[in-house]
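Predict the 3D structure for this chain.
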Amino acid sequence: MLNYLCLLFAPFGLMGQESAEVIQLINPSFEDMPRHSKAPRAWSDCGFKGESAPDIQPSGIFSVTKPASNGNTYLGLVVRDNDTWESVGQELSRPLEKGKCYSFSVALCRSELYVSISRLSDQTANYTTPAKLRIYGGNSYCERKELLAESPLIANTRWQDYNFKLEPSKNYTFLILEAYFKTPTLVPYNGNLLVDNFSDIKISVCNESAVQDNVAQSEKKPEMVVVKAETIKVVDNKDSNTVKPKDAAPGQTEASEPKDIIENASINNLKRTDLKKGQTLRIDKIFFEMDKSIFTRESYQFLNDLVDFLRENPDISMEVGGHSNGLCTEEYCLKISTDRAKAVVDYLVGKNISRLRLAYKGYGKKFPLSSNETVDGRRKNQRVELKIISFNNN
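Done. Predicted structure below.
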């Protein structure tokens, strides 16, 4: 009651100040002529070169006919099986400021039909697998400087309002919205996300917690996860330059590749005299099932070669290091990389290699080799490394 009275009798000057803090988007309901491959008025296409732009729906094209949540049209975004996805961006009427918190809502759902052509098979496909919405802050068109928030997978086929809360670590003048795959994953797929009725962005209280509801069942407006991690360096979809590692791996510098790291190491070609203590063998022949620590069939040839190598060189002790891609939380990345490193050690021990000669450690996503924005980059980051600990226990 007290808060209500304070608002009721607030001085006009204060109310005007609060109004000035509101960030208003241009065309927040994505109104425009229904058509495909065209970003709505006032929004910029931030997708991949060579790929089509988002769609203004419902146009009937791609079999999308769902009525809008607000107004006449809405934004249609897809994710594709060739590891590309659609996004749009807009310059803000005033910056998002470091140290302040913001809240807004947006209507989201999924279309039961979104019929197009698969980029991989070149056959007709229905892009209906649920995707999520990610929200980035930046300081130029389509720049993804910091991941501010993301939704859960949007499986609901009726419009629902989702509440977002942002807490930027720096000032940002642009906002980017993109559809994205289920994470953590290395397997792109065809899916869609519909976006409508973006509200004004308002200053909010920072100490309120954000709770992610079961949006498919709840009647409430669910709040989104707030991303409070340090700024994420992301490659612009229109530029294929790779991201430099935030931190150097053991023995690695930003300036040059250390000489004591052997890339794409082949056990069969290794000579005992070429090895030294502290040397790292970077492996690209051990693979796991998605989100598991179970080896795929093609991994066993290398694992068995490694067994033979360790039997032939009983004086060598080594650490198995697991590394993940960046499409997961710190906690999950650390766990999956540790589990996979342990799986390698367990396999070797099961082949009668002494556990006293083996150690394992998960490094999570701490030491990326390339950008996580491409399949090839994520494959490079998700790897196993063997580090020579000692010879003859020295």
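The chain has two domains: 14-226, 261-391.
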